[in-house]
Amino acid sequence: MNAESGFANDMNFELPEEIRMLKDTVRKFVDKEMIPIERSGRDGHKLKPEVRADLESKAKALGLNGYDVPQEYGGQGLGILAKVIVWSELARSILLPTRGRDVFGPAVSPILYRLNDEQKKKYLLPTIRGDYKWCLAQTEPDAGGDPGGMRTTAVRQGDHYIVNGMKRFITGADEADFTQLIAATDRSKGSRGGISAFVVSMKTPGVKLVRAQELVIDDRPWEIAFDNVKVPVEDRIGEEGEGFKHAQNWINLGRLRHGARGIGVIERCLELGAGYAKQRVTFGKPLAERQAVQWMLVDSFMELHQLKLMVYDAAWKYDQGRDIRTEAYMAKIFGDTQSFLAADRCMEIHGGMGLATDLPIEKLWRDQRSMMITEGPIEILKMALARHVLGAYG
Hints:
Strand content: 15-25%
Number of helices: 9
CATH class of the largest domain: Mainly Alpha
Low-confidence stretches: 1-6
Mean pLDDT: 92
Largest sheet: 4 strands, mixed
């Protein structure tokens, strides 16, 4: 349809050339440097120090360092669409920690860019330099998907707050120098003005790592206790009552990252599944000639295409400054569920070998099942989407 008919001829689903080049560079890096050592490069759920140092050095030489840092702070300042490409390509390998930083420079929480100038000097700039690591302390034993039920409290007393409570499933707490703490300053208001955010040093008296939680996946998140922890008012992030807004902004990007991860997982499962189907012969024929196997691969291929469109659309809208809450919900729901299903199909195609730790399939399967729960369980996100649908179409 041309412009004369009343519609601008500007719809384009192709990635820009510079992002396609970035995608190619990261894919080659993953194929050459990560996949060959993905079963030997980790010590438990963490990269071996020498492996991390080697990968970080090679990534820096390729110009991939600092992709997640704005230009004003010395980074590349890539938009979310470009970051989505990086996240999806890295997800094709199981080498890196499932939840945690990658090897392309410092991991910087979006919340930290909302700090005031003094706070940035104290926390943001050391993080960008790689001197500090952080964790986000939001989830609680009785307040995971429902942050309005948060029981950790921050009670103001003059020029400081007194924090008491317990946080659970906090990734990276054992290595963190500080935490971005989300706590209730007015429990009667719940998530609508009753939650505030703070930056708290992990060395503050009263902050205690309780235990690492053993999970069916490789992650080992921590429980953190806050016992009469004294936090200066100047370490509050923004105004009192804005904490839920800050956390949700970070989590929306996290949900988009879930969708991007799903792209990489489905692609790897297609690579593994199609390759094995061509090699494995049963009853005189390769599995690739069995319709049951063909349909599994085709279904995952179609879902990959759908997920790419969904995630790229959300990322593009974010880069345009638009609200992507509903798009982030959908990207996470579809990305997590369909990537888990792709891993399940890949496991089925491989039979007994799919269960073996020689291959990455079983880890992809376990990881993607866990993704359906963290940063918003599927059911809660569908509840939020239902409100949108009923408001828009009712």
